[in-house]
Amino acid sequence: MKRVCIVGAGAIGGFIGAKVAASGETEVSALARGKTLEALRTHGWRLRTEAELVQAPAIASDRAEELGVQDIIFIAVKGPALSSVATQIGPLIGPDTVVIPAMNGVPWWFSEGISALKGARLESVDPGGVIAKAIPQRHIVGAVVHASTSTTEPGLVLHKMGRGLILGEPQGGHSQRVGSIVELLGNSGFEVKHSESVRQDIWYKLWGNLTLNPVSAITGATADKVLGDLLLRQFCSRAMEEASQIGAAIGCAIEQSPEDRHEITAKLGAFRTSMLQDVENNRAIELDSIVTAVHEFGLRLGIATPNIDALLGLTRVFARTRGLYREQA
């Protein structure tokens, strides 16, 4: 039986943990703390869907050494917490452990192997290379999550819509290890794709989140209201065009127009972005992996990004004044 550990058993981590644990094919543990740790120890994994309450036993601890070496680790913490978490999970990682970051935005490993960047690390998401040193590249499998979840109380996840997961090797192509994880997750009820280019899939999701997340956070508006204002919609489109130029330069070309993407997003209706939810709940926002990283790409590649720069500045000051953003040291 495979051993799976969820690091960060919040909305996404709890969603993955509960569904995998309920399949009965694996031993699923959690590295957690505080009230979430207490809830997991008391109730196990809990996931509420429209049809039922899914529950399954959970092994939970706030000490990685108590959980031991794992076959698969899902990291589902918020971006600002990742540097600290990365230095704590060493006891979970063995020679063949697979580490899957199930997180928003550009991951710390993303720039590895991109010739246009000449090996430059993204300081905006991994200052000083702390994360890269703690989690060697050979362990990583890239991931994109397409699901809407929230936590109604510590340890209890509400699933709203979507069960999509995309997995792939950072360097591209298919592999046996990703194939086995795809099968495990498929058996757990996810809609899973084994991607030939997970870096492209990550960039495409980011391309939409880049504008809608921070604009909704600043304005307090749901997605339909943001896209329903012509001036805001045009501003988002201009920023997305800049990101498209960056994507083309790093081998992640976007074939759609911004307007095409807006039409797809509009079909989802009046939803609250993850960044808006963080602001509403007084949580630190994931600005660096979603916006600052794209700004950094532009600087490194010599691509002008005036609209992205304006969006970054506005969101950064907005969040600073509310104590929801602090530059990583």
Features:
Rossmann fold, 329 residues, five-stranded parallel sheet, N-(1-d-carboxylethyl)-l-norvaline Dehydrogenase, domain 2, five-stranded mixed sheet, 13 helices, 2 domains
Structure write-up:
This protein is α/β, with parallel strands linked by helices and 329 residues long. The chain has 2 domains: 2-196, Rossmann fold (3-Layer(aba) Sandwich); 200-321, Orthogonal Bundle (N-(1-d-carboxylethyl)-l-norvaline Dehydrogenase, domain 2). It contains 13 helices and 10 strands. It has helices spanning 11-23, 34-43, 64-67, 82-86, 130-134, 176-187, 198-219, 223-228, 230-249, 258-266, 274-280, 287-301, 306-321; strands at 2-7, 26-31, 45-48, 53-56, 59-61, 70-75, 93-101, 142-153, 156-168, 191-194. The strands form 2 sheets. It has a 5-stranded parallel sheet with strand order 5-2-1-6-7. Strands 3, 4, 8, 9 and 10 form a 5-stranded mixed sheet that branches. Strand 1 (2-7), helix 1 (11-23) and strand 2 form a beta-alpha-beta unit. Helix 7 packs antiparallel against helix 9 (230-249), helix 9 (230-249) packs across helix 13 and helix 12 (287-301) runs antiparallel to helix 13 (306-321). The chain is globular and about 50 Å long. The model has no long low-confidence stretch (mean pLDDT 96).
